[in-house]
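Dissemination and training. As part of the outreach component of the grant, students in the summer workshop were shown how a complex can be specified as a set of sequence lines and then modelled as a single object. The example used during the hands-on session is reproduced here so that future cohorts can follow it. Participants entered these lines:
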Amino acid sequence: MTGVLEKPAAAELKVVGTRPIRPDGVDKVTGRAQYGADYVMPGMLFGRIKRSPHAHARIVSIDTKKARALAGVKAVITAADLPNLASEEYEAGEGGGDLRDLSLNVMARGKALYEGHAVAAVAAISPVIAEAALDLIEVKYEPLPHVIDVEAAMAPDAPVLHERMFTQGLPEASSKPSNISRVNKLGRGDLEAGFAEADVVVEGRYVTKGVHQGYIEPHACLASFSEDGQSTVWSSSQGQFMVRTYCSKLLDLEAANIRVIPAEIGGGFGGKTTVYLEPLALALSRLSGRPVKMVMSREEVFRATGPTSGAVIEVKLGAKRDGTITAADIVLKYQAGAFAGSPVGAGSMTAMACYNIPNVAITGYDVVTNTPKVAAYRAPGAPISAFGVESAIDELALKLEMDPIDIRVKNGVASGMQAVYGPTYNSIAYLDTLEAIRKSEHYAAPLGPNQGRGLAVGFWFNIGGESSGAVHINDDGSAVVVTANPDIGGSRASMAMMAAEVLGLPVEQVRPVVGDTTAIGFSGLTGGSRVTFATGMAVTRAAEKVVEDLRRRAALTWDTAVENVAWENGQAVCLDPAKDVKPLTLKQLAARSGRTGGPISGEVSLTAQGAGPGFAVHLCDVEIDRETGHVKIVRYTAAQDVGRAIHPSYVEGQIQGGVAQGVGWALNEEYIYDKDGRMENPGFLDYRVPVASDLPMIDAIMIETAPNPRHPFGAKGVGEVPIVPPLAAVANAVRSALGVRFHELPMSPPKIRAALDAQG
Amino acid sequence: MPHVVITGAQGREFTGGAGEFDVAADTVRRMIIELDDRFPGFGEFIDRRMAIAIDGEIHQDAYAAALRPDSEVFLIPKIGGG
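and obtained this result:
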């Protein structure tokens, strides 16, 4: 797919841009929807995992004899029952990593690298027996010194997690094992000259803690391994093909012998772009000869699945008195968790992506720590670097006595400008997005006592990638759309809408279905804000293929050339002046499909290129309760460059959801560890995500002045960029309310109280 | 000839630290082959680790994408997402 698609003007669209009722809504609100934990099979066993109580320990021995002897226990596995994989890079859709690390994260071998690391698994006829069996597994550990904090892990004398890890990206190859897996450098211009030009310099060190994606549905799956080597997995994930690929590689099975059926998904936000349970459930099923169901507790989700990085962000900015930023020097240190691969690369590339600055240096450190391996979390890495950069920009604006929008407009990127990370932007509406906030009623609204206002901006790339889509016409003229992307953010609705637009059908006559790995061609994950863009492109082209076929069938019926047939409003219209015929509806064509070539359907698989980047500008008002230190979000407006909204309600929902998660990150969420490296708050009572009463109605403004020229309807990804600005927007609002800059998240009540006490 | 720039430090271990090249190639695949000929192993690295921005548009996997004689190509780390 390399050409620029022809886009209809918004006024010509009948379905795209409207707000139909979501096709999955009734099932979800009535409990009919099948989530990962809802699947049952006859003879099913219940799997449980034994986890390390130590943050870092050598595994001396594991004795499973007593557990295996317990009545009702059908299988027990350790790493010894899984292939011992060599270090090898793998690819799975847009993701990838080291196969050995993936395997070792699923089941520890030799060393436990974080509290909660799986060391053994059992399957039994009841959950109670499975739990009892875990207690009978005897694991001898040799506890080792551990390290949680990112800077402590970078220290020369830090406990080393991996003896064979040597820092990559240094000018000279290192021969000393280190927790710093890689150093990335990015930049342009002459930093020294840039700072020499500056009249004003601001510097700051900012800290964020590890936070979890906080999806409501814990990881869950059911796996059934048959005697003939065929297996089926039902699981909640962000990609059934990802689950198939990883199970195949980790268990050395043929992909053709694994069928993965996607369950409904109760949130993922990037955290379900990898596997934890599925390979273990399959291995237990293979050993026991029975289906095995595994469901994590909330505590396990916190202790053993990917949060995102805690980090340190150092920012130094220089500017002229007129607000022109002349230089930016940024250092990012990100926790990767137990295995290399933090999102510091994306954090580096996004850090200054909203700014057109000539002299920039960004250094990123990827650092392993004795914490769960991080997983993607909505715009991975970007909110962290944006917290530091946008706080520093706010400081700069205060120092220069400039309006926060003026300084961002003065230094903002526009189409034709080169991004700090390389490419030249085209079709972006960042400046329009800033101006939309300036023009909003919110921006000029008065503030009350103890209130403050903060503004911050954010960028995310969005991606395309591999996708498949199929459109089948039913015999009554209605349609089915099949894709392979779990519906997290409303993709069923948007797929149906795009197909309906092309076919000329009412959207209610198009049924969207998420197919399993045997029902439709490969698709990458639901992630990277790619589905409406990339899979939407595949569905649109599949629908166009169907329309071409319908025109051919109408031409055959009328005995005329296909060029004489137009497709208008869901029916074939004959343009041949020699023919006096009435239009043929889709229903009529479908009814006689057997005589015109058989079933009517089209399937398209493609690699979508040209995902347009997203920009967000957020404005937040807070009110501080000086007695308790509680920060209340009293008003929030979020504007976003969305290209063109396919289903505006879903786009607004994505914006609001991103803000809600960002507010939690800013105010309350954090992994808290005790001195032994054990997480102290692995539950929603002590790890506090925002609830409805914590948030006002979030006003979403969709900017549609720069539709994506590479998408048939102009869509850009929208799901990730809205989580980028809130950390800094809230922090800047708190700074405005209190006159105190918070350099560390979360800004929880004790910290606010301490700041107020310090003020006296 | 299309001009290729490596964004950041990744991949420069193959190129002796060099970050900019002119390539006689009219597609992404030919560009990768030429760079691999010059710097053995770099082609595989690009395949696995890099996304390719051609004249401002990011391509994740695009052997067939055309390069114009004046194309500006950036090799940037592959981007995922949540």
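Residues 16 and 50 of chain B are 18 Å apart (CA to CA). Students were then asked to discuss how this feature might be tested experimentally.
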